[in-house]
Amino acid sequence: MKALVKAKAEPGLWLADVPEPVLGPGEVLIKVLRTGICGTDLHIRAYDGWARQAVRTPLVLGHEFVGDVVDVAPGVTGISPGDRVSGEGHLVCGTCRNCLAGRRHLCRSTVGLGIGRDGAFAEYVTLPAANVWVHRVPVDPDVAAIFDPFGNAVHTALSFPLVGEDVLITGAGPIGIMAAAVARHAGARNVVITDVSPYRLRLAERVGVSLAVDVRTSGVEEGKRALGLREGFDVGLEMSGRPEALRTMVANMTHGGKIALLGLPSEEFPVDVARVVTSMITLKGIYGREMYETWYAMSVLLEGGLDLSPVITGRYPYQDFEEAFDEAAGGRCGKVILDWTA
Ligand SMILES: NC(=O)c1ccc[n+]([C@@H]2O[C@H](COP(=O)([O-])OP(=O)(O)OC[C@H]3O[C@@H](n4cnc5c(N)ncnc54)[C@H](O)[C@@H]3O)[C@@H](O)[C@H]2O)c1
Ligand SMILES: [Zn+2]
Ligand SMILES: [Zn+2]
């Protein structure tokens, strides 16, 4: 079968013929239909410092996908050939304290699909049945392909109650924009989003934010004034991984404000901890998705009319992966999709 492979320990990706994966005990074999390109895949293609220590070659990339089940191992129940599925890309150990307690998203030995084992940028992928999410209600295949990052957005956005609250989101990447759509849908009063890319701020406007602030030319303070916020934001969602974004957020929260942090900084950085203490701000780190509470929320949010279509801006057949990756790396885009059926 065809697959996108990190074949050599150097920058680049290779479209290669590799053996079809063999169904193991407790697994499900899936014919991949569409996949989403993630920042992680860009790091692996570029082979930067993180990728050098995180991946061993050869590796089939990819963790954001939708596909159809073609076979299930004996004993697997509740999943059948023909089911339309997406996959939870965090494979957990099942034996650590948190796994045993059912808190699988807190597993201490998570292995990443397409990072620590072969992934979904291929015609077929296998996954443990426990990692398969069946779409019981029809979902647009492009949206189903990005359930993984949509789950990051939902997990972060729903970390703290939002109804009637003023929400600040730093970073209008695909995940920040999806989080803005979720916050709106879930009943936030104001949703303010920041970025340094006019293109992405315009995309964010399409999901109905109250204000999209280009922090290169204007401040969050001005935005607060324009919306008539007298104190500060109640909930902050950090989705850029940038030190200055978290600092701006901390400075603009109300007393008792709650901040969920998804953005992954590339290095340590200082923040005004005295302000966190005296304003009694809560900081919560978010990794991945809750298994499977977040997935349930995603499916029913879409069923309830949440519209993610503005976030998908690029569609390519898998053979044109170089152009697709270049578009994703260029930043003038939302989510970029590869079609594996073309
Ligand atoms: N914790 C997790 O499980 C998890 C999972 C997926 C992604 N992530 C991280 O979440 C973040 C968002 O993911 P994404 O795919 O949307 O990434 P992305 O890189 O596409 O988006 C980040 C956005 O932040 C913007 N930005 C840069 N400087 C800024 C500033 N000073 N203020 C505001 N915005 C600024 C960028 O222009 C970009 O649009 C990334 O940091 C990613 O690494 C974390
Ligand atoms: Zn991803
Ligand atoms: Zn575990």
CATH class of the largest domain: Alpha Beta
The poorly predicted ranges are: none
Name the ligand types. Answer: nicotinamide-adenine-dinucleotide, zinc ion
- Write the CATH architecture name of the largest domain: Alpha-Beta Complex
The helicity comes to 25-40%
Total number of distinct structural domains: 2
* Cα-to-Cα separation, first versus last residue: 14 Å
Tally of separate helices = 12
Oligomeric composition of the shown chains = single chain
CATH superfamily of the largest domain: Medium-chain alcohol dehydrogenases, catalytic domain
Give the helix/strand class.
Answer: alpha/beta
Largest β sheet strand count, sense and barrel closure? 7 strands, mixed
CATH topology of the largest domain: Quinone Oxidoreductase, Chain A, domain 1
- Tell me the overall shape: globular
Give me the Rg, rounded. Answer: 20 Å
Give the SSE string: EEEHHEEEEHEEEHHEHEHEHEHEHEHEHE
What percent of residues are in strands?
25-35%
What's the total count of β strands? 18
- Mean pLDDT equals 98
